[in-house]
Automatic annotation (TrEMBL):
Tree of life domain: Bacteria
Keywords assigned: Cell membrane, Membrane, Transmembrane, Transmembrane helix
Spans traversing the lipid bilayer: 12-33, 45-72, 84-109, 121-138, 147-166, 172-194, 288-316, 328-347, 354-376, 382-405
Membrane topology according to the record: Multi-pass membrane protein
Compartment list: Cell membrane
InterPro entries membership: Poly_Biosynth_Transport, Polysacc_synth
Record-given protein name: Membrane protein involved in the export of O-antigen and teichoic acid
Pfam families with a match to the protein in the record: Polysacc_synt
Entry annotated with the keyword Cytoplasm: no
Gene Ontology CC: one annotated term: plasma membrane
Length: 424
């Protein structure tokens, strides 16, 4: 048990570094970019970043979760690991082909994009690079330490390039360029490490294996849509209803701050997921949920109290107007932890994937319906959109929490009937 706990703690730490590097290095450039580019142009950066997030959602197609689960199930069988690894990568390429065609059509022919197509293609290339990262392999093997430091260093170097080379409004194009180059170099390093140090190779696999991975990942894809509906899609909608002025820039900065808090959570849930699949230790889920909420709620209350000076300090004096948006959206962070824990870490390891997906579908329908009603009655603005987003996440959490508690009670009842000690 001590070895398992040490492994879990080590992989959680490494996931903080690896997953967080995608966002932290972007976050630390925010105060600089908001000042150099201004709210209007930074809003365009936010629109491009939202496009990147949506593209990445479709390119990944849930392989991060499904691939992690499949690798974890392989145990120490290297032949099975290599087969799953090859099938998932082949499935990623198969999915990327139609997504690239659709993305190209959007960039070239939709008015909001074709005014600056090169800018949006760079964001798309960045999404492709990150989608091909084999982090599902490292997560499933619970072996994150060997590759994490190299990738963090590479991304730190290219984040520093933004400070060195983006000096004026006219150089805004360099933002997605440096993101892409950093991700591409990190991608190459990971594949070299998989081949030379893990001894795993991409091999030819039957098409049925590839298609099987696509079908399995499609369930997880539905779950990941939720985050996009509540963040990136909101940004896209605002880009159309408020294309000029600072509102989009304010929301982009708010979303960046909330997203950073949410991404600080994903390494915990990401490392817990394969561990719970193997051990079925639901006490760990409940313990992490309790202490995580204590820490996150305390932190969010503190941030809410000092929100205005904090926004000015981090983003600049021009962003004092985002204070109310930030306060409204802060509950998203503690809600997200419970949503993730009761979702794939809890229900996923119980084999109740359907409930997790249903909660997302219900949430997406609810959110879209609320926005439509607000629009029809003339109440749709950035503040009502923020409130609707928090309400939708609370609905998803309620569905997952109810199903998770019911699952625990069922497990306890079955354990009692079989005369064995309950795992939780």
């Amino acid at each position: 048990m001590d070895i398992q706990r040490k492994s879990l703690a080590n992989n959680t730490l490494m996931l903080f570094l690896l997953t967080g590097s995608n966002y932290v290095f972007g976050l630390i450039t925010v105060p600089y970019l908001t000042r150099v580019l201004g709210a209007d142009l930074y809003g365009q950066i936010g629109f491009g970043s939202a496009f990147y997030t949506i593209a990445l959602l479709f390119l990944d197609f849930g392989f991060l979760l499904s691939g992690t689960l499949e690798i974890a199930k392989c145990g120490d069988d290297r032949d099975s690991i290599e087969r799953v690894y090859s099938a998932v990568l082949s499935a990623k390429v198969m999915v990327a082909i139609p997504v690239t065609i659709v993305a190209s059509v959007i960039i070239l022919f939709v008015d909001r994009f074709n005014t600056d197509p090169v800018f949006y293609f760079w964001w798309y290339f960045y999404a492709v690079s990150n989608s091909m990262v084999p982090d599902f392999l490292y997560r499933g093997l619970e072996n994150m330490s060997s590759v994490t430091i190299r990738n963090v260093i590479v991304k730190a170097v290219f984040a520093a390039c933004i400070f060195l080379f983006v000096q004026s409004h006219s150089q805004y194009m360099l933002v997605p360029v440096f993101h892409f180059v950093g991700a591409a170099v990190a991608l190459i390093i990971m594949y070299v490490h998989v081949r030379n140090h893990l001894g795993l190779h991409v091999r030819k696999v039957p098409f049925r294996d590839v298609w099987d991975q696509v079908k399995k990942s499609s369930l997880y894809f539905l779950s990941r849509i939720a985050g996009t509906v509540f963040s990136s899609m909101n940004t896209m909608v605002l880009g159309f209803i408020a294309p000029t002025g600072p509102t989009l820039g304010y929301y982009t900065a708010t979303n960046t701050a909330i997203h950073a808090g949410q991404q600080a959570i994903t390494p915990v849930t990401g490392s817990l997921f394969p561990n719970i699949v193997r051990t079925k230790n639901y006490k760990m889920v409940l313990k992490v949920a309790f202490w995580g909420e204590v820490i996150l709620i305390s932190g969010c209350v503190a941030v809410a109290i000092i929100a205005e000076p904090l926004c000015i300090f981090v983003f600049g004096p021009e962003y004092a107007g985002m204070t109310s948006m930030l306060r409204i959206m802060l509950p998203m962070i503690p809600i997200t932890l419970l949503t993730y824990l009761f979702g794939w870490a809890g229900l996923g390891s119980m084999g109740k994937d359907v409930v997790t997906n249903v909660s997302v579908i219900v949430g997406a329908v609810f959110h879209a319906s609320v926005l439509a009603v607000l629009f029809l009655f003339g109440y749709l603005d950035v503040y009502t959109m923020c409130i609707a987003t928090v309400a939708t996440q609370m609905l998803i959490l309620a569905i997952r929490a109810f199903a998770f508690v019911k699952g625990l009670l069922d497990l306890k009842r079955r354990s009692s009937s079989a005369g064995v000690e309950s795992l939780w």
